[in-house]
Design a protein that fits this description.
Length: about 350
């Protein structure tokens, strides 16, 4: 079905009223992308053709009814549904949310069954995807259930990698989620990902503090002294190069992050605000810790510019590149792991 060197990139369409379709089509207008991989978009070719015509894009689409019919070097569109869809760019629509999930569920099934090599997800609206059949906050939680491993959100842009101890929970609940078990699991997950997915043999990991100034010896909260510090020390003593907790306010501004292969923030905005500031719109959301590779652009549906043809596609293109790089890195890791001599040579 495929050449060994041509990776099959499955793509879920996301919210059709957002910019997802636009950034997907713009990414693959460059014919050089098709020498690197073969995209398979899970959607409907007539709907995508309408969007393509509306936005005056030129990417040639190849409609198929089953993934077994894919053609290497073409932009394949699997018809996940047949009926027409009423689009209204920039609007939150519950019906559109149903199609976003149809696409995502079909793409995930193909990933599990090895019909695609990697999955890149276009942005969804977390509010219009909820239903009796789909009760997950977003992509990551569903993938964590469907795939093997423990999911960890890892934001990536070149050598900047920011992971999270907690992600989509209210700020006032973060402290009670920070347990020794969680911290150990997340740090081990990110360490393994750095080795397997990014080819870093002895990764150095920094952990940010929960409280301002790392709690100032208990004056501004006790979590850093009572939970983070002893757990980090325990992990370090077992051979993992993990350091902290560091006060978060000056960590990025002073370029301290450059000394580490990854940084772990204690909660969502603590990590994502500096990441998105430093990545200049080229960041990628990677779901580390699972047995399959999934990436996504680091932006949302961007309803305010949807349908105008002005969306920047660089983050989505980087998500495709990152998925391919990680896929290749994993295969190399698995290959050398089978040969202890090769592994020893790589570590030297």
């Amino acid at each position: 079905m495929k050449k060994a060197e041509n990776i099959i990139v499955g793509i879920s369409i996301g919210d059709l009223n957002g910019i997802g379709s636009e950034v997907i089509l713009k990414t693959f207008e460059d014919s050089r992308m098709l020498e690197l991989c073969t995209p398979v978009i899970f959607a409907n070719v007539k709907v995508l053709s309408f969007i393509k015509k509306t936005l005056e894009l030129i990417a040639p689409l190849h409609g198929i009814d089953h993934i077994n019919q894919l053609v290497i070097g073409k932009i394949n569109v699997v018809n996940v549904w047949r009926e027409g869809v009423d689009l209204n760019f920039g609007n939150n629509d519950e019906n559109i949310g149903k199609y976003a999930i149809k696409s995502f569920v079909a793409a995930t099934k193909a990933l599990k069954e090895n019909q695609i090599d990697v999955l890149v997800t276009a942005p969804i609206n977390k509010y219009n995807i909820q239903s009796e059949e789909f009760k997950f906050p977003g992509h990551t939680d569903y993938l964590d259930k469907e795939l093997e491993g423990n999911a960890l959100m890892l934001m990536v842009q070149d050598n900047l990698r920011v992971g999270l101890l907690t992600d989509h929970i209210p700020v006032n609940e973060v402290a009670k989620h920070l347990t020794e078990k969680l911290i150990i699991q997340k740090i081990e997950t990110i360490k393994h990902s750095l080795i397997q997915d990014f080819g870093i043999n002895k990764p150095k990991i920094a952990v940010l503090s929960l409280n301002p100034h790392a709690g100032d010896n208990g004056v501004i909260g006790k979590e850093d002294d009572e939970i983070l510090k002893p757990t980090i020390k325990k992990i370090f003593q077992k051979g993992t190069l993990v350091f902290g907790p560091y006060a978060a306010d000056g960590f990025f501004g002073s370029n301290q992050y450059e000394k580490y292969d990854a940084v772990i923030a204690t909660y969502h905005d603590q990590g994502l605000i500096p990441f998105k500031t430093l990545s200049f719109g080229n960041g990628v959301n990677y779901t580390a810790g699972l047995n399959k590779v999934r990436t996504s652009p680091d932006h949302g549906t961007a309803y305010e510019i949807a349908g105008k043809g002005i969306a920047d596609y660089n983050s989505f293109k980087e998500a495709v590149y990152t998925a391919i790089d990680i896929y290749n890195s994993r295969n190399e890791y698995l290959e050398i792991s089978k040969n202890p001599m090769k592994l020893k040579e790589k570590q030297l």
